[in-house]
From TrEMBL:
It comes from Caldimonas brevitalea. This is Uncharacterized protein.
Length: 123
């Protein structure tokens, strides 16, 4: 039978300096407190809807048509992630399908109206 090794437990203050900057070092503060804020606010998902909920049926049809062309669409992301929504709308605009192009234009206009409404509500 092998002898058991001696286990030495250190508190963060007693931690040897050679481990101070390694992955084995204890965290001195929770990550949430030390993490910087978003660098680019515009690219961060927000809780404000990009599209109004009245566009859900249009989004469902848009998702079906995009899938037919091999481009997946996540409705929840379309609703709340502006960058993703505009990326999907741009893909639809370059497609050769006239129906899909018209839907993309309608969704884009809806996004713009929703943004204008939010700006007016904020003032």
């Amino acid at each position: 039978m092998l002898p058991l090794p001696d286990v030495i437990e250190y508190s963060p203050e007693e931690l040897p300096t050679e481990f101070g900057g390694s992955a084995f070092a204890a965290l001195r503060a929770p990550c949430a407190e030390t993490a910087p804020g978003p660098i680019v606010e515009v690219l961060q998902p927000s809780h404000a809807a990009v599209l109004p909920s009245s566009d859900l049926l249009l989004l469902a049809r848009f998702k079906e048509l995009m899938a037919a062309h091999g481009w997946p669409v996540q409705i929840a992301r379309m609703m709340f992630d502006r960058v993703y929504a505009f990326e999907r709308i741009a893909l639809a605009r370059i497609c050769q399908d006239d129906t899909l192009q018209a839907m993309a234009l309608e969704l884009f206009k809806s996004c713009e109206r929703e943004q204008q409404r939010r700006l007016l509500d904020a003032h």
